[in-house]
Amino acid sequence: GVLDVLLPRDDVLRLVAHPGSPGEEAAELHDLRYLRPPTDTAQAPRRILLAVGPEAGWEEPAELDMLIAAGFRRVTVGERVLRSDVAVCALLAVAAELVRDWDADRTLS
User: CA separation (Å) from 98 to 3, 4, 45?
Assistant: First the structure.
């Protein structure tokens, strides 16, 4: 689709913030604070595309399913449910640190 043309999956790490719900598959949810780059750090994306929904996560399963189908990985920044405005700030700060760390790993390789 258009997203793949504008931001190819190989160039951008696609993340969707979703705190999850009791009983959801935990294996599908990654803590953004501990997300690691691909094994080949030279191929690690330099940009992150982050989708943030309403407080307490995406309410419509179809919306979340559409993002997952578009290559987004579900992430969280912990167990607390954050207001959307606070979540955006927290997620951007953590994502910026991830990219910085991945760039540092690239220079060491």
Answer: 22, 22, 10
Closest residue by Cα to residue 11 from 51, 60, 44: 44
Per-residue confidence in pLDDT tens, the chain, 109 aa? 899 999 988 888 898 988 766 555 555 677 776 776 666 655 667 788 999 988 877 888 899 899 999 999 888 887 788 888 998 998 888 888 888 877 776 666 6
Q: In terms of Cα–Cα distance, which of 72, 77, 73, 99 is closest to 90?
A: 77
pTM of the complete model? 0.77
CB atoms within 10 A of CB 61: 8
Distance in angstroms (rounded) separating the CA atoms of residues 80 and 72 = 21
Q: Which residue has the tokens 């990654």?
A: 30
105's enclosing H/E stretch is helix 84-108
